[in-house]
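A reminder from the course coordinator: this example appears on the midterm review sheet, so study it carefully.

Given structure:
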């Protein structure tokens, strides 16, 4: 029986997903997408999950699409590009962005093409010092997808986004950090311990507030000030109605550490 291309473990409120095709730098196939959809469905059905951690097995995080999976051996041409995006990548990016939990990404090596943009769709990215990000699409005559043309200009500005997309240059982890593209860089040997510690911390926080923070920050890039102020008021009102808010206030008054339940 072949090794599953997606590994899933759930413990301490954290669902850890590992892309598991290390011999292919965890590049995506249709089967891998199906397994990842199944894993996300299992996570969504598990009320104990309050944070998701995504990483890759082996030396790379994800090299994007496995071209051998989409090339017709008879013609040597890739087919169904639009269908692959609509059926696989686009729903995946939306699931990570809209999920009811924060998503941490531990980039353990090269993240190229859709693999880079998969990382950027997560809420907090921690990268190994040896990791790199490559908008590799132009190298085979394609354009960024999987949300790359959405995330990059917003994170690092138009000039840098266009430069990365047009040149396909490798961007090292330290430069990605300096540019504001990722949250932190960790020594390679310490990456997973740092990422898991962060994920466990987030899993113990007021989950609904964290999800509302995701909504706030994304909306702010499109909203007017008036619209953002109105959104803040609405989300704050929702947060004030949660049990975690009541616990936070009670803990503050009692000078103790709060115990949040994600409710």
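Designed residues:
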């Amino acid at each position: 029986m072949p090794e599953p291309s997606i590994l899933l473990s759930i413990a301490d409120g954290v669902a850890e997903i590992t892309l598991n095709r290390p011999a292919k730098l965890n590049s995506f196939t249709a089967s891998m997408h199906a397994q990842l959809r199944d894993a996300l469905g299992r996570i969504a059905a598990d009320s104990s999950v309050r944070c998701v951690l995504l990483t890759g097995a082996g030396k790379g995080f994800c090299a994007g699409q496995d071209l051998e999976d989409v090339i017709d051996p008879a013609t040597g041409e890739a087919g169904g590009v639009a269908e692959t995006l609509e059926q696989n990548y686009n729903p995946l990016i939306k699931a990570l962005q809209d999920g009811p939990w924060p998503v941490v990404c531990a980039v353990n090596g090269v993240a190229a093409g859709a693999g880079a943009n998969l990382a950027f769709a997560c809420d907090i990215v921690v990268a190994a010092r040896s990791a790199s990000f490559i908008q590799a699409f132009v190298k085979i005559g394609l354009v960024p997808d999987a949300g790359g043309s959405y995330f990059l200009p917003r994170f690092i500005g138009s000039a840098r986004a266009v430069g990365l997309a047009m040149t396909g240059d490798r961007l090292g982890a330290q430069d990605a950090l300096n540019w504001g593209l990722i949250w932190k860089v960790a020594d390679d040997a310490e990456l997973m311990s740092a990422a898991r510690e962060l994920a466990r911390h987030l899993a113990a926080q007021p989950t609904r507030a964290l999800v509302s923070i995701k909504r706030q920050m994304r909306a702010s890039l499109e909203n007017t000030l008036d619209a953002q102020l109105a959104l803040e008021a609405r989300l704050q009102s929702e947060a004030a109605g949660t049990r975690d808010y009541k616990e936070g206030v009670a803990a503050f008054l009692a000078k103790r550490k709060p115990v949040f339940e994600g409710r």
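Residues 6-203 form a domain with the 2-enoyl-CoA Hydratase; Chain A, domain 1 fold (CATH 3.90.226.10). Residues 33 and 88 are 6 Å apart (CA to CA).
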